[in-house]
What we know:
Blueprint: H1 5-15, E1 19-21, H2 22-27, H3 33-40, E2 44-48, E3 51-54, H4 61-68, E4 73-74, H5 76-82, E5 93-98, H6 105-110, E6 111-116, H7 118-121, E7 125-129, E8 135-139, H8 141-150, H9 157-169, H10 175-184, H11 188-198
Parallel strand pairs: 5-6
Antiparallel strand pairs: 1-3, 2-3, 4-5, 7-8
Amino acid sequence: MVLNYAEKLEELIKKQHGTVLSADLDAYEIPRVYLQMMVAEGKLERVDRGVYVSTNSIEDEMFSMQAKYPKLIYSHETALYLHGLSDRTPFEYTASVPSGYKVVGSVADRFKIYYIKKEFHELGVETVKSSHGNPIRTYNVERTICDLIRSRSRIDIQILNDALKRFVKLKSADHSLLMDYARKLKIEAVLKSYLEVLL
């Protein structure tokens, strides 16, 4: 059975838990007029440039922002939250982008942005599920701990201490990987002094 364009679009919306991007239509070869038709029928609403959300679901902002700006990698407090190392729901998202990447105003208003040297931007990236079930990119736990130490002057000390305490109790924590990242990011001595207090 060949799905018609409208059915194909509805399948895609379901698969992406209610969020669809105009760029997705190009990837799936669905004419964009079908997007306009669904908006006219009241099934979809445009929430941002190129981002549409089903009227009976909530926008997956983390997924749609990363789809629009693929260089954004969730980091720091947001990464902690995604890994269950913080109970605080971030009231603004934190993300890292490579140095020299121009962040548009709409992103700068909603995100706390960290700039990182290009050679370290992809270090420790992994894909996790957003709270809506869509794939999003964030740093792994070990990289996140290193980022918190590197940015300690901009981070609430309580969040940093709590994250370190939880990290040392994690069975899945990879201490040699943590030290490898710390060496590359030139924070080995600082990290060791923090860990000595906890271990």
